Amino acid sequence: MLWQTFYSLLLLSLLFRCTGDESLPEVTDYEEAPMDKREREALYSAIQGFVGDSWNGSDLYPDPCGWTPIQGVSCDIYNDLWYVTDLSLGLVHENSLACSSSLEIRPQLFELKHLRSLSFFNCFISPIVIEKEEWVNFASKLESLEFRSNPGLIGKLPETIGNLTKLKSLVVLENGFNGELPTSICNVKSLKRMVLAGNLFTGMIPNCFKGLKKLLILDLSWNSLSGTLPSSVGDLVSLLKLDLSNNLVEGNLPQELGSLKNLTLLDLRNNRLSGGLSNNIEKIQSLTELVLSGNPISEDIMGIKWEKMGNLVILDLSSMGLRGEIPIGLTKLKRLRFLGLNNNKLTGLVPSEQLEALPCLGSLYINGNNLTGELGFSRKFYEKIGRRFKASKNPNLCQPFEMVMSESHKHLLPLGVKPCT
Ligand SMILES: *[C@@H]1O[C@H](CO)[C@@H](O)[C@H](O)[C@H]1NC(C)=O
Ligand SMILES: *[C@@H]1O[C@H](CO)[C@@H](O)[C@H](O)[C@H]1NC(C)=O
Ligand SMILES: *[C@@H]1O[C@H](CO)[C@@H](O)[C@H](O)[C@H]1NC(C)=O
Ligand SMILES: *[C@@H]1O[C@H](CO)[C@@H](O)[C@H](O)[C@H]1NC(C)=O
């Protein structure tokens, strides 16, 4: 019975073969999930290039889009045939396609014409410069391209990435890429996420953002980008998150930042920004996180209308050379959870009661300034905030009295603040 079924199936498939249209791609002869043979060979060869010659795809995975799936490979049907749509290489899971130390990017990779998502995680370890020509083969389909934690990827980012006009997500995170950013990335008008963080990019931030109206996330942090923040960032009208932290960006914040009406995160920490913030920063009223620490701004922060930024949850203004008193406007920010004002040149009294009245405040750093007078926080405040309050290194600041505190909470009194006499 079983044999009969087998033979009739075989016969059937042979019949199909003989009557098939010659112009159709050659397909393998099981009933479901037929795959274009060239596509399958290209997949095997491309993967073998990455994982090494001992990996034999046709042996191990005769039906890669069907009953012998390959970890990291997904497929979809186009014109009744299976094609590869997603390919991830490198160590993601235990049984994922781990890359060989002597890998090669074979041309067959670029024959996978329906590929929508390609990612490499922890794959390129030995130094390799990726050629730019072949990427244009992916121009009409690729929506997501990711290189994550590949220290061996060196040289410039191929400018042909700018030809991938369907790309929605470009993640180039923690690799060894260097040189200038290609301005061609601004041609990718479909981009929603551009993460180029943690590489060795140098040169200016390109002033070419005009077309990127759909971009939601721009993260260029942890590189060595220099020059000023270009005015065309103001054209990124959809932007939610802008992270340029840990670079060498200098000069003023451009007025145009004020046009980013949906921006929730602005992280510019550890750069060389030196121009003032006044009349600029307060225009971005959508911000929930503003981190400007570690920039030589050296401004009197009394000039900023902080009370306008009522959505702020995190505000880090530490190590900026800020002068003036703690602006009372800051104590109007009812959503504030984190306030960092440490290591500046702030003077005057601490508005303790108003700060304590902020309902969500869970971290407050005012250490390393030249604040004066008595701290006026209650015992309850110290019990709540614990060591997330610091006021030390203000030589003229004092703690008014040995508060009545339970023994177990005594240690919560701020360290390094002398008692008032
Ligand atoms: C895979 O193994 C088959 C035999 O099982 C062999 O014919 C084929 O040449 C091998 N392919 C590669 C690429 O090593
Ligand atoms: C890639 O994009 C550049 C710049 O837009 C263009 O000049 C070039 O012709 C494109 N290449 C291909 C193969 O489409
Ligand atoms: C800003 O966000 C709102 C609400 O999420 C949305 O309706 C609007 O289209 C966004 N604006 C832009 C320019 O993307
Ligand atoms: C701190 O402020 C006091 C006045 O309150 C002033 O005499 C002193 O010079 C200031 N110290 C520093 C280091 O600026």
From TrEMBL:
Gene Ontology CC terms: plasma membrane
Biological process according to GO: biological process involved in symbiotic interaction; response to symbiotic fungus
Subcellular location, record wording: Cell membrane
Keyword list, A-Z: Cell membrane, Leucine-rich repeat, Membrane, Repeat, Signal
Coiled coil: none
Organism superkingdom: Eukaryota
Pfam families in UniProt: LRR_1, LRR_8
InterPro entries the UniProt entry points to: At_inactive_RLKs, Leu-rich_rpt, LRR_dom_sf
Broad class of the protein's primary localization: membrane
Signal peptide (UniProt feature, chain positions): 1-20
Protein name as annotated: Leucine-rich repeat-containing N-terminal plant-type domain-containing protein
Source species of the chain: Eutrema salsugineum (Saltwater cress)
